[in-house]
C-alpha cells in the first residue's frame, strides 16, 4: 500500500483510544497488527490483549466509526489471535504516557520467565519513582493490570502486567 | 441441534464448556469476595475463562452445519449437550474450596494447553497461544493460595484439607479417555488425557507438599462430564445462565 495512505490511516487510528486507558491510542497499545486498503476502503487487523477483555468490542466499533468519519466508505476489521499479543508490542511512547497517567508500564521483556513465577521484575512507582513497591494483588481494575503500593509515598497504583 | 457430533467438534465443546461453566460459577463471587482485592481477582479470572470459552465455542460453532454462534451454543443447549468436567459445576463453597478447585483445574489446564500449543488444528493452536498466558497467571495465583491456606492457621488448613478431600474424587475424569479424545489425539489435535497425568501429579504434589495438605487415597472417582452425564448442580447453573436469553431470544446487550 502507498505510504501516504498508510500514514493517513495511522493518523486516524492515533485518535482512537483504549476506552479503559484513554491516554493510550490503539497504536500505542499494539493491538493493530495490519493496515491495508485503498482510498475508499480501509482494512484493519487487530488482536485482543486478553481473551475476555470487554474493551475489544468497543475498540473495534471506535476504529470503525473513526475511519468512516475520516471519509472511508467502508471499513473491515478482522481479529486475529496469532501471534498472541504481548506487552512487548506496546510502544515506548505508550509506556511513557502510561507512567505519566499514573499506571506503571510493563517492565522488562515478556520472555523473562521470572514474571511467570511470581518473581516479578521491580516495579517503579509512577508518582515518586521509588522502586520500594509491593504487589497488593495480582489482579487489578482491568484484566491487563495488577494492584501495587508504593512503600515510600504510600500511594496505591495500577501496574500493567507483563505478558 | 443434532448431537451426533464430529469428535473434533465435541472436543472443542468440551474445552469451551470447561471454560464457560467455570467462568459462570466464579462470577457468582462478584460482590462476595472475602476482601475487595480478591473479589476483583476472582472476577478477572472468571472473565479470562469466559473469554476463552467465547473463542473456543466460536471455533466449534463454525464447524457445525448449520453454524452456531457462541451465544447460541451457551444459551440454547440442554444439560446433556454440555461436556464440561463435573468438578467445575460444583457450588463454590468457601474461599478454600474455590481456590483448591482452581488449583487442581488450573494445573490441569496448564499442562493441557502447553500441549495444545502444538495442535494440528491451527485455530485451536492460536487460541491456546492466547489462553496459556492467562492460565500461567491463574495457576500461580491459585497455587499461592493453596500454600497460604494449607500452611496457615488451624482453621485455614482444615478448610483447605476438607476441600481437597471433597474435590479429589473429581480429578479422575481429567485423565479418562473416550471415543472423541482418542480420535483427536490420533489426529494430533490434542494430547491423550492420560498422557497428562504424570506431569499434573508431579506439579500438584509439589504444591500440596509445601502446603502440608494430603490428598485422600482413593480407588474410585466420579466421572461423566465429558459425555454429558452431570451432577444435580448443572441444571441450576443452566437455569441461572440461560433464563434470560431463552425468555427473550432477541435480547441484545
Describe it.
The complex is a heterodimer of chains A (163) and B (253). Chain A has 163 residues and is an alpha/beta fold. Chain A contains four helices and seven strands; from the N terminus they run ααββαβαββββ. Chain A has helices at residues 3-13, 26-29, 55-69, 92-101; strands spanning 32-37, 41-46, 74-79, 103-104, 133-137, 145-150, 156-160. In chain A, the strands form two sheets. Chain A has a four-stranded mixed sheet with strand order 4-7-6-5. Chain B is an all-alpha fold. Helix content of chain B is 61%, strand content 0%. Chain B has helices at residues 7-26, 36-61, 70-75, 95-116, 122-150, 154-167, 179-186, 197-211, 233-247. The relative contact order of chain B is 0.15. Classes of the chains: A alpha/beta (163), B mainly alpha (253).
Keywords:
heterodimer; A: 163 residues; alpha/beta; four-stranded mixed beta sheet; three-stranded mixed beta sheet; 4 helices; 7 strands; B: 253 residues; mainly alpha; 9 helices; globular
Question: What is the compact description of this entry?
Answer:
The complex is a heterodimer of chains A (163) and B (253). With 163 residues, chain A is of the alpha/beta class.
* Overall radius of gyration of chain A: 17 Å
Rg calculated over all Cα atoms of chain B:
18 Å
Number of strands of chain B: 0
Helix % of chain B is 55-70%
Mean pLDDT of chain A: 89
Contiguous uncertain segments of 5+ residues of chain A: 112-116
SS content category of chain B: mainly alpha
Amino acid at each position: 500500500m502507498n505510504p501516504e495512505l498508510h500514514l493517513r490511516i495511522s493518523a486516524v487510528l492515533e485518535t482512537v483510544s483504549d476506552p479503559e486507558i484513554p491516554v493510550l491510542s490503539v497504536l500505542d497499545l499494539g493491538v493493530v497488527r495490519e493496515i491495508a486498503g485503498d482510498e475508499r476502503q480501509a482494512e484493519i487487523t487487530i488482536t485482543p490483549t486478553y481473551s475476555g477483555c470487554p474493551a475489544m468490542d468497543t475498540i473495534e466499533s471506535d476504529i470503525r466509526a473513526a475511519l468512516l468519519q475520516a471519509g472511508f466508505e467502508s471499513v473491515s476489521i478482522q481479529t486475529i489471535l496469532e501471534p498472541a499479543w504481548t506487552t512487548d508490542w506496546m510502544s515506548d511512547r505508550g509506556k511513557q504516557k502510561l507512567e505519566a497517567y499514573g499506571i506503571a508500564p510493563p517492565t522488562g521483556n515478556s520472555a523473562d520467565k521470572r514474571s511467570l513465577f511470581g518473581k516479578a521484575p521491580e516495579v517503579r512507582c509512577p508518582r515518586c519513582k521509588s522502586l520500594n513497591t509491593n504487589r497488593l494483588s495480582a489482579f487489578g481494575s482491568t484484566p491487563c493490570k495488577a494492584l501495587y503500593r508504593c512503600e515510600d509515598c504510600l500511594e496505591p497504583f495500577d501496574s500493567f502486567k507483563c505478558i | 441441534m443434532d448431537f451426533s457430533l464430529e469428535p473434533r467438534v465435541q472436543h472443542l465443546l468440551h474445552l469451551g464448556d470447561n471454560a464457560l461453566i467455570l467462568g459462570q460459577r466464579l462470577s457468582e463471587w462478584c460482590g462476595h469476595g472475602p476482601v475487595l482485592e480478591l473479589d476483583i481477582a476472582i472476577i478477572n479470572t472468571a472473565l479470562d475463562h469466559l473469554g476463552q470459552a467465547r473463542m473456543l465455542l466460536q471455533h466449534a460453532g463454525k464447524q457445525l452445519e448449520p453454524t452456531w454462534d457462541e451465544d447460541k451454543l451457551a444459551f440454547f443447549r440442554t444439560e446433556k449437550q454440555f461436556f464440561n468436567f463435573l468438578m467445575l459445576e460444583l457450588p463454590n463453597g468457601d474461599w478454600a474450596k474455590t481456590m483448591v478447585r482452581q488449583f487442581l483445574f488450573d494445573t490441569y489446564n496448564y499442562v493441557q494447553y502447553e500441549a495444545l500449543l502444538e495442535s494440528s488444528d491451527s485455530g485451536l493452536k492460536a487460541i491456546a497461544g492466547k489462553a496459556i498466558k492467562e492460565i500461567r497467571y491463574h495457576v500461580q495465583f491459585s497455587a499461592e493460595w493453596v500454600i497460604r491456606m494449607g500452611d496457615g492457621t488451624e482453621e485455614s488448613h482444615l478448610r483447605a484439607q476438607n476441600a481437597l478431600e471433597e474435590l479429589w474424587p473429581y480429578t479422575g475424569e481429567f485423565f479418562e479417555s473416550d471415543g472423541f479424545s482418542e480420535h483427536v489425539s490420533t489426529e494430533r489435535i490434542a494430547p491423550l488425557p492420560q498422557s497428562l497425568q504424570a506431569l499434573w501429579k508431579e506439579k500438584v504434589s509439589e504444591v500440596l507438599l509445601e502446603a502440608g495438605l494430603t490428598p485422600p487415597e482413593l480407588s474410585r472417582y466420579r466421572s461423566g462430564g465429558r459425555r454429558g452425564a452431570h451432577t444435580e448442580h448443572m441444571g441450576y447453573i443452566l437455569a441461572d445462565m440461560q433464563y434470560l436469553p431463552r425468555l427473550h431470544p432477541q435480547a441484545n446487550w
